[in-house]
Each structure stands twice: as structure tokens, then as C-alpha cells.
Amino acid sequence: TKIPFRLNQNQALLTFEDEEVAQRLIKMGKHTVKLDNKAADVRVKPFTLDMGIKFELHVTISGKKINVSEIPELSIPEDWMRDKLELNFYKSEQGGGGAVENVNYDKQSRTAVITFLRPGATNVFVRCTKYPFAVNGRCYRVSVSPKTDVHFEKFQLYCGISKKTILLKGIQETEDDEESVQDMIEIHFQKPSNSGGEIEKIKYVSKGATWVCFEE
Length: 216
Fold this sequence. Notes:
The longest helix is centred in the middle third of the chain and has 13 residues, at 78-90. It is built from three helices and twelve strands; from the N terminus they run E-E-H-E-E-E-H-E-E-E-E-E-H-E-E. The chain has helices at residues 19-28, 78-90, 178-190; strands spanning 2-7, 11-16, 30-35, 38-45, 51-69, 100-106, 111-116, 130-135, 138-159, 165-169, 199-205, 210-215. A five-stranded antiparallel sheet has the order 3-4-10-2-11. The protein has a five-stranded antiparallel sheet with strand order 6-7-5-9-8, covered by helices on one side. It is α+β, with helices and mostly antiparallel strands and 216 residues long. This is N-myc-interactor. Pfam families: NID (PF07292). InterPro entries: Nmi/IFP35_dom, Nucleotide-bd_a/b_plait_sf.
């Protein structure tokens, strides 16, 4: 899950390697940072991210069913088309799955679901996206994909809090470019003498605003 956070003008986010460093700086509250040969008082704030979502996605690939699409439009009865699909995918010399139990063909959408008798018959189609389909003396290419069952589990909402990240507010504008100011902030907060520590990520915005994504 990625949770976006809006970082406004003259603000910075610093993620430390050590959670204790971030929490210590938050408790101190205010810090004097040297920017452009000036001493700037900045405020360190904790922050809460927007609502996030957690879930497990379970995908089960059928061993007996495949989806077939892009079936050619032919002027033949539907039951004939079903028979030709069954015969085509039964042919073992074309890498088919063997005996077919059922063909569910939909003429309007030009799709079909083919069910084989033997479990595991669809294994040969897992990496196959296009498959030859011979009918009326012509060979077409139909799209083939495994039939999957998808469902969600353990779906829950939560409020994200980054314990290793601090929010800096009130950074004064300077004549230096954004990258230089970001470097000066990083140098200051990396020093143990300033109660800092190793920084994993830093993002400073001098103008406008940007969205920063947090990953769990």
C-alpha cells in the first residue's frame, strides 16, 4: 500500500534509519539550522498520514478451465462453433489440453470458457497467449488465458504513522537553489552533535507543493 502525503512550500520530510533519532528530534520541537550563512529556526512536527488500506489478494488459477477470446466471426451455427473449439483444443499435436468436458461459447462477445476433463490440463496454456484455431480450411489466432478466481481477504482500513520520519516547517526562503538547501538540511540533521543521525530519505519543497508516497 502506498499512502500519499502533501508536502507544502518551505517544508521538508526526513526519514531516519533509526526510529529513536526521529522521536528525539520531535520531542525537542525547535531547531536552529544554518541556511545560506543565516541561522533559521525550524519546527519539527510529527504527522499522521491519510487513511490507508490493507488486504490480501488471493488468485487461484484453474487447472481445468481456460478463457478463449478473439474468436473469429464466422457464418456458422453456434453449436458448430462449439464443436470446432472442442476439437481444436482436444488435438494433442497442437499442445492442447486433451479431452474437453464442456465449451461455454458466447457469440456476441466472441469468447468461450473451455473446461477439460483432466486436472492440470491447462498447464500448457499458462505461458501461451495466442493459440492456433483451424476452421473451414483457415488458421486463425485466438487469445488464451488461464481461468482465475480472485478474492480479497483481511480487508481493513488503517491510519498510517511513520515513526522514522519528521516534518520540518517554517524553513526560510533563501537565494540558494532547492537542492543546495536540501543538502544543508541533511548535513545539519545527520550530525550527532545536533541530536541527529543517518538519514535514509529527504525531500524539501521550496515552491508550490508535491505529493510524497510512503510505503509500508
